[in-house]
Amino acid sequence: MAVKKFNGGFQSLSKRTESEKEISETEPATSRATFEINTDILEKMRAIAYHEKILQRDIINEAMQRFIEEYENKYGKIKPIPGIKKERLL
After folding, report:
1. Degrees (nearest 5) of the Cα angle 57, 87, 78?
2. d(CA 8, CA 19)
3. In angstroms, what CA-CA distances link 25 with 21, 89, 90?
């Protein structure tokens, strides 16, 4: 078994590479959420993700984005919840 050599010490392990910085600067912020979903819908989504070789979170993000766009087209821009700071939502 090969032994890895870490030349930069502990600090080098915690530093982001240039490519990681580029990805994090272009990727939108994400948050974890826990919710219940219809079992049939979940099974179909998982099957789509498997067959199309895409992430389940990408399916959920696209579906939610479409829902929000349709909602805003019908009712106008969504207003933030009063009294809740954005940081609390993350």
Report:
1. 70
2. 18
3. 6, 20, 17
80 inside domain: yes
Residue ranges making up the domain that contains 67: 36-90
Residues 9-32 have pLDDT tens digits of 555 555 556 655 555 567 788 889
- Give kind and range of the element (H or E) at residue 27: none
Kindly report whether the global pTM for this prediction surpasses the value 0.70. no
Report if residue 7 sits inside a domain.
Answer: no
* Domain assignment of residue 26, yes or no: no
How many separate domains does the chain show? 1
The dihedral through the CA atoms of 69, 71, 77, 82 has a sign that is negative
